[in-house]
Structures are given as structure tokens and as C-alpha cells.
Write a structure and sequence with these properties.
Layout lengths: L4 E10 L2 E11 L4 E6 L5 H8 L7 E6 L2 E3 L4 H6 L2 E4 L11 H6 L5 E2 L2 E2 L1 H14 L15 H14 L4 E5 L7 H16 L3 E6 L2 H7 L2 E6 L2 E7 L5 H9 L17 E11 L6 E11 L2 E6 L6 H9 L6 E6 L2 E2 L5 H6 L2 E4 L3 H5 L6 H5 L10 E2 L2 E2 L1 H14 L17 H14 L4 E5 L7 H16 L3 E6 L2 H7 L2 E6 L2 E6 L6 H8 L16
Parallel strand pairs: 3-10, 3-11, 6-9, 9-10, 15-22, 15-23, 18-21, 21-22
Antiparallel strand pairs: 1-2, 1-4, 4-5, 7-8, 11-12, 13-14, 13-16, 16-17, 19-20, 23-24
Length: about 525
């Protein structure tokens, strides 16, 4: 069998970590090849080596059977290798056309020759079904269109090997379906695609073969058509994983949280980024706020948790008005928060695990003696949570939190927040960047919190998570709540229409959403 790309015996070390351990990956011409693995399994490192961003410590790369050395992304481009990164590399105040030709511009007498480039880009967009507006600013177009721009950047450079790193992370269902179609079209045209993902549905939908990494090692390469999602997940995690969220029907009690007319302004533009939002969360239910990233979800959560002051409206937990109270007092009233960015708002990375587990309760009597920390109590409490929540760390409670995996950092936050026994738990993107094993665990904890009578507000961009975990879905678009729907009755496509602003829940006024 002839391979267009072979990565043989690739080894890459970072201080204290063997990221790739003698990994083999072989890509055929014209195939879509998925690269699957847990968070930290070494997928992105391997692709960064192929794209010239890292140099391997061992192993060889072959293109069409010939050894090649790829020392930089420019080198990769010369070898016909392109990459769409998870976080797009676009200049936001440039146009689509300017971004596509950036770095490979045609000039004459020191002047840009845009006409030829425009014609070539338009032809490419038509050929591959990538509808774009060449003169639109990147800042003005949707995430889906930004992704098309990134794909056209690769095609304009005549790349024949295309790497996609978690390409669907920020797309709505319609855009995901379109991308899958585009990828199949590119493969049919003879392009070879490497596709990093942790979404098994997408692998089953488009990939021909799949290579699985676990702990930096290559577990194997399988034919996707003859492999089940269950077998792929077991290869990835090393044990059987439940791919469905197991939960009984919710039995909501009294209202535990209420927001009325909540508004937050962007004080630079004067625009309402959270616009007159009214909703409730009851005991024993998981309410999910769904939407495309950047539609006011982050600002709403910051207002709810006290990280940002709201400009108008009110909030209450358990009937107590918390609109103007401090973050610590919100904790005292029974609010807990699993933040969107675990590194920025969830943990002090240079502290050890024990200190992170008492960040919000160190001042309480149980952890204090005569105004000083009672280290015996702190470490005893940390050991209990580590055991109860299966937090894996090299040196137990003394482990520096930065050195832990993303999944275990997230477990630490969840343990800390849930163990304080809050009335109302806000969980924002709780499974972002995690593998199926960690996702299964975190979903189970959210359902247990619900079943113990807590009110849970989940904010998620992952539609599978939205549909499977929530008891009620509120959709946010341009700062407004535009729908209140039952996950049992709404389709993925309908949810996508609400999220893109193409549809609104006209049966209810915005002021009644969540009632």
C-alpha cells in the first residue's frame, strides 16, 4: 500500500512528559483519517510535528515514500501540508480575501496584484462549494465562514494534505453538516485529510480509518465502517464507557434561582450584551443555556456569579436578593460556580491541590485555628475529596495543580463546588476539551446534583451535551433568550435555527421565558 504521508516511530518529549511515544501514523491519498484520543493523549503534538511547529526527538516522516524534514509551517506548506487550527489564525480587521493570500501575495513593482488572486479564490470557492464573500471583514462574518476562509487558505496554497484540529468545536448543527460535506468533497477531489476530534459521531460520519492514541502511545488503526462507537471509546480510554447520559425524569420543586430583566451593557459600544433576560431554575432540574459562542453567555454568567456587575435587573437565590452582594456572599447564599476557564477563574495553578480545594472555605472555622490555617484539617479534607471524586494526581494533595491533566483539574473544581452543598450550581462548559471518560464522570456528577434537589444551570456549546443532560433548554442569541424548549421535543436542526437567530419562540414573550 502506498501512503502519501508516513510518520514512523515519532517520539516527542517535553519536561516531565513523553507526549508521543514511538507513534506510527500512515495516511493514504484521498482518505479522511481521524485521529482520536483523550485530552493529553498526544494528538495535537503529533499534528504540530507534521506541520513543522515542533521537531521530533525520534522517528521519521515520509512523503510519498521519501524521507522529509519539516522544520517550520512554511516548510510544511512547501511540502503541500496545510492546517486549520482549533483557534483560527485570522486577522480580524482584514478581509476574507486578504487573509487567504496573506504571506503568499502576488506583487508587481512593489504593488499588490489582487485581481488575479480574487479570481483564483472565487474559482476555488465555487469548485469546492465554499461560499464566501471576498470583501467581508473577518470580524463581521460567522464562525462557519471564518472556517471556510481557513480552508480556502490551504487550497490557495495548493496543499494536498489538510489537517483539521477539532474543526466542529464552535459550529452549529447546520455548519457541522456543511463541513462534513465539504470534507467529503475535498477527499473526492484527491485531497488527503487528517481530522483530530473527540466526537465519535463525526468520525462515524466522515472518516475512512481512525488511529487511536492513549497516553502518547498508538493503540492501533482501525477501519471506521467496521468499528462501533463503543469499541472506539474503549480503545481511547482503556475501559468500557457509557456514551449515553443515564438519568431519570426530573421532578422539579420550588424555584431556587430567579433572574428578572437582567441587562449588561458593553460600556465601550453601549450595546446590551445581555438584554433583559428573565428566567428561573427550580430545585431538581438542569436548565441549559445553549447558543453559539459570543452571544452573551459569558457576560450573563459573570453577572450571575458577581464577576461583573449587571446594569439593571435583579437576581435571587432561595428567595434572597443577591443582585448587589459580593462573590463570597453569593457563595454563602448557596451559589456554586464551575467556571468556563478553569485556569483563569477556577484554580490557582501554582498552588497545590489541597489549597485549591479549600479556596472558597479556608476562612471557615473547620480550617482555622487562632487565625491560622489548620493544615491537618486542610489536608485531611483534601484527601477525602481526592478519594471521593477520584482525582488523580502524582503526589496526592501536595501535587502542584498545574502539573495535573485537564480532566483531573476539572474534577478538583467540581469536587470543591459540589461538596459545599450549594442550592444552585452554575456549570459553564464543564466538559470542554475533555475525553469521553472524564465527560461521562462529569455528567454523572451534574445529574447527581440535580437528583439531590439542587438547581443546576448548565451553559454549553456542545449540542450533544445540551440535548442529553438538560431537562429544559433556553437558547441565547445576541444577548436575548429567544426560546425555552423541551430537549425531548426539539430537534438538533430546530435548535440550530434558534441559535443562529433564524427562528424565535414566538409562543412566549421573552419576559416569560423560563417561567
Amino acid at each position: 500500500m502506498d501512503y502519501i504521508i508516513e510518520m514512523l516511530g515519532i517520539t516527542k518529549r517535553f519536561p516531565g512528559i513523553l507526549a508521543n511515544d514511538n507513534v506510527n501514523l500512515q495516511l493514504r491519498a484521498g482518505e479522511i483519517h481521524a485521529l482520536l484520543g483523550e485530552n493529553g493523549a498526544g494528538k495535537s503534538t503529533l499534528m504540530s510535528i507534521l506541520f513543522g511547529m515542533y521537531q521530533p526527538d525520534g522517528g521519521v516522516i515520509k512523503k510519498n515514500g521519501v524521507d522529509v524534514r519539516i522544520t517550520s509551517p512554511s516548510d510544511a506548506t512547501r511540502h503541500g501540508i496545510g492546517m486549520v487550527h482549533q483557534h483560527f489564525k485570522l486577522v480580524h480587521n482584514f478581509t476574507v480575501l486578504q487573509n487567504i493570500i496573506l504571506g503568499v501575495e502576488t506583487t508587481k513593482n512593489g504593488m499588490l496584484k489582487m485581481d488575479d488572486a480574487r479570481r483564483q479564490v472565487v474559482e476555488l470557492s465555487k469548485k469546492y462549494g465554499l461560499d464566501i464573500k471576498p470583501d467581508a471583514l473577518i470580524s463581521d462574518i460567522t464562525v462557519g465562514m471564518q472556517q471556510r476562509t481557513e480552508i480556502l487558505k490551504m487550497l490557495y496554497r495548493e496543499n494536498e494534505i489538510l489537517i483539521f484540529d477539532e474543526p466542529t468545536a464552535v459550529l452549529i448543527p447546520q455548519e457541522i453538516n456543511e463541513l462534513m460535506g465539504i470534507m467529503k468533497g475535498l477527499a473526492a477531489e484527491g485531497k488527503s485529510i487528517l481530522f483530530i476530534t473527540h466526537k465519535l459521531n463525526e468520525i462515524k460520519a466522515v472518516a475512512d480509518r481512525c488511529t487511536v492514541l492513549r497516553g502518547g502511545k498508538c493503540i492501533g488503526t482501525v477501519d471506521v465502517e467496521s468499528s462501533s462507537k463503543e469499541s472506539l471509546s474503549e480503545m481511547m480510554v482503556g475501559r468500557k464507557v457509557s456514551l449515553s447520559v443515564e438519568k431519570t425524569e426530573s421532578k422539579p420543586g420550588k424555584v431556587i434561582f430567579e433572574a428578572k430583566g437582567l441587562t449588561v451593557k458593553n460600556h465601550v459600544t453601549g450595546k446590551n450584551v445581555v438584554d433583559n433576560c428573565t428566567f428561573t431554575v427550580r430545585e431538581g432540574e438542569i436548565v441549559c443555556i445553549a447558543g453559539i459562542d459570543g452571544n452573551g453567555q459569558s457576560e450573563l454568567v459573570q453577572a450571575l456569579t458577581g464577576l461583573m456587575q449587571s446594569d439593571s435587573g435583579s437576581m435571587a437565590v432561595g428567595g434572597a436578593d443577591i443582585t448587589k452582594v459580593s462573590i463570597r456572599d453569593r457563595d454563602k447564599y448557596g451559589m456554586a460556580h464551575i467556571p468556563e476557564d478553569r485556569h483563569k477563574h477556577g484554580l490557582v495553578l501554582e498552588y497545590n491541590l489541597a489549597y485549591n480545594l479549600v479556596l472558597q472555605s479556608y476562612y471557615k472555622k473547620r480550617f482555622m485555628q487562632m487565625g491560622f490555617l489548620d493544615f491537618k484539617s486542610v489536608y485531611s479534607y483534601a484527601d477525602r475529596l481526592i478519594d471521593m471524586y477520584d482525582i488523580r494526581s502524582g503526589q496526592g494533595a501536595k501535587t502542584i495543580t498545574r502539573s495535573m491533566s485537564g480532566g483531573n483539574q476539572q474534577k478538583a473544581i467540581i469536587a470543591r463546588e459540589i461538596d459545599r452543598n450549594p442550592q444552585f450550581l452554575i456549570a459553564v462548559q464543564p466538559t470542554r476539551g475533555l475525553d469521553v471518560g472524564a465527560i461521562e464522570y462529569i455528567h454523572k456528577q451534574l445529574v447527581l446534583a440535580r437528583d439531590s434537589g439542587k438547581g443546576v444551570l448548565l451553559v454549553s456549546l456542545e449540542l450533544d451535551e445540551v440535548m442529553s443532560v438538560s431537562d429544559r433548554i433556553l437558547v441565547m442569541f445576541e444577548g436575548q433568550l429567544v426560546a425555552d424548549v423541551d430537549p425531548q421535543k426539539v430537534t438538533y436542526q430546530e435548535l440550530g435555527l434558534y441559535m443562529s437567530g433564524s427562528k424565535r419562540d414566538t409562543a412566549k414573550g421573552a419576559e416569560n421565558l423560563g417561567q
